[in-house]
């Protein structure tokens, strides 16, 4: 895994950590025979340790980023299997707006996460998306007013710019 740069913005650092966790887990997944959602989550946990060894984030921040990544993968996998739609539809915007590497990694991870779908879908719906968390690429909709927030790379979820709501759900289609 590559060393993380030392950016001044801690939120940017967490977004970069999200990408590094995803990249490391996918690289490790290519080496194992059992490709499933639970196995990918196990690989994310292993990658989390590598990130911890770099000393760029606190243990709490690494745990948060890991859970955010797992939540996004569960949400994407649930959507893809339930609707039969493609990953690009789950994002809620044109795929060309995110980097090729991130698109490829997230697509691969979402494909592997489709196993045990019903349970994972329920967890994603219960968890939701909240201000202060990190999310992967896609569109979130404010549960209070319906305002859309577009994320072209992993990033911090701010309060709704329209109503200051703090709870969101992923836009689908």
TrEMBL record:
Pfam families xref list: DUF1451
Protein name: Zinc ribbon-containing protein
Annotated organism of origin: Thiolapillus brandeum
Lineage: superkingdom: Bacteria
């Amino acid at each position: 895994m590559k060393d993380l740069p030392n950016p001044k913005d801690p939120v940017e650092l967490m977004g970069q950590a999200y990408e590094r966790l995803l990249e490391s887990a996918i690289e490790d997944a290519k080496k194992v025979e059992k490709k499933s959602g639970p196995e990918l989550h196990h690989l994310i946990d292993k990658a989390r340790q590598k990130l911890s060894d770099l000393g760029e984030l606190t243990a709490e921040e690494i745990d948060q980023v890991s859970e955010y990544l797992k939540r996004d993968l569960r949400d994407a996998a649930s959507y893809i299997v339930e609707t039969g739609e493609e990953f690009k539809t789950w994002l809620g915007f044109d795929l060309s707006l995110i980097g090729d590497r991130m698109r490829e990694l997230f697509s691969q991870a979402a494909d592997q996460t489709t196993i045990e779908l019903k349970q994972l879908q329920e967890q994603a719906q219960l968890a939701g998306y909240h201000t202060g968390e990190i999310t992967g690429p896609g569109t979130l909709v404010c549960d209070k007013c319906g305002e859309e927030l577009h994320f072209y790379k992993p990033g911090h979820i701010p309060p709704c710019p329209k109503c200051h709501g703090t709870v969101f759900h992923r836009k689908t289609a």
